[in-house]
Design goal:
Layout (H helix, E strand, L loop, with lengths): L1 H16 L2 E7 L12 E4 L8 E6 L3 E8 L1 E2 L1 E2 L3 E5 L3 E2 L7 E9 L8 E7 L11 E6 L8 E6 L7 E9 L6 E12 L13 E3 L6 E5 L5 E5 L5 E6 L6 E2 L6 E9 L2 E10 L1
Antiparallel strand pairs: 1-14, 2-7, 3-4, 4-14, 5-6, 7-13, 8-13, 9-12, 9-14, 10-11, 10-13, 15-16, 16-19, 17-18, 17-20, 20-21
The chain binds calcium ion (CA) (2 copies).
């Protein structure tokens, strides 16, 4: 009896984990070459661009680098551009992760932005800045960053890390780029004709019309599952425990996502 219970618990855990998939992962493993498919744009035209580098301390670190100083001050405007990433067949939430650092804690003020193109991997295409910062001394070590890129779901994108608008520091280091998405939609995805959820915004109870689903999982914008309920015909879903904010509700038929909708909790 106990064994059976344990098995049931394990099955439940594996189902909730399967709702998050790694769509894209780049550890910049090579010590000498940028990964295949990644490209440089040298917008300032000084021939200094992003390159692969490494450092062996306690462990071997591998990453991409752009310099704002190399024996003399540089004025970088260097884009490191990802391969094309296909977000057409995924469902939100989609979250972009990366780690960032600087080469010298006494000269840390490197500035960069993360920019997403839905057209071409060119300066003209990168007019969508989704994140920017100027690093500080504590960025000498690896710093984890993440942003929600769910608004790009349904499109093909290029992502650029643009090192710019700074000079005479040392270097900017990038590693561990990753995108997590909700379940990648299977090609035999059930169609949800006339499926409707209401009210939206919702306060306490969410009503469903024509849901061909038997389970709802609600995710926050970081892709963490917050609430899970069985769907019972003609019964509303109680969401009163959610804090006010924006969420994604994924509807499952058994283990398969059949629809994901954005909901606002008031
Ligand atoms: Ca340059
Ligand atoms: Ca690495």
């Amino acid at each position: 009896m106990k064994k059976l219970l344990l098995f049931t618990l394990l099955a439940a855990v594996s189902i909730s984990l399967s709702a998050q998939e790694v769509l894209f992962n780049e550890p910049f493993d090579s010590q000498t070459e940028l990964p295949a498919g990644w490209t440089n744009i040298d917008a300032d035209g000084d021939t200094y661009v992003w390159y692969a580098d490494w450092y062996e301390g306690d462990v071997l670190e591998t990453y991409a680098v752009s310099e704002s100083w190399n024996e003399d001050p540089l004025t970088p405007d260097n884009y490191l551009v990802s391969p094309q990433i296909d977000l057409r067949n995924v469902t939100a939430p989609a979250v972009l992760y990366w780690t960032i650092g600087v080469g010298d804690e006494e000269w840390p003020a490197e500035k960069y932005q993360v920019n997403i193109s839905t057209t071409t991997p060119s300066v003209e295409g990168f007019n969508n800045s989704v994140f920017e910062e100027i690093l500080e001394a504590d960025a000498y070590y690896w710093n984890k960053r993440q942003i929600d890129i769910s608004s790009f779901v349904g499109q093909q994108i290029y992502i650029a890390w643009r090192h710019y608008d700074c000079t005479d520091n040392y270097k900017l280091l990038l590693d561990s780029v990753r995108i997590d998405v909700a379940d990648i939609v299977k090609t035999n995805d059930l169609t949800q004709d006339n499926f409707r959820i209401y009210p939206n915004p919702v306060v306490n109870e969410l009503y469903l019309n024509n849901a061909k689903a038997n389970r709802i999982v609600i995710y926050n914008l970081l892709g963490e599952s917050i609430l899970e309920r069985q769907i019972i015909t003609n019964k509303p879903i109680n969401v009163s425990s959610l804090k006010k904010g924006v969420y994604f509700a994924s509807f499952y038929m058994n283990d398969q996502i059949v629809s994901t909708r954005k909901i606002v909790k008031r």
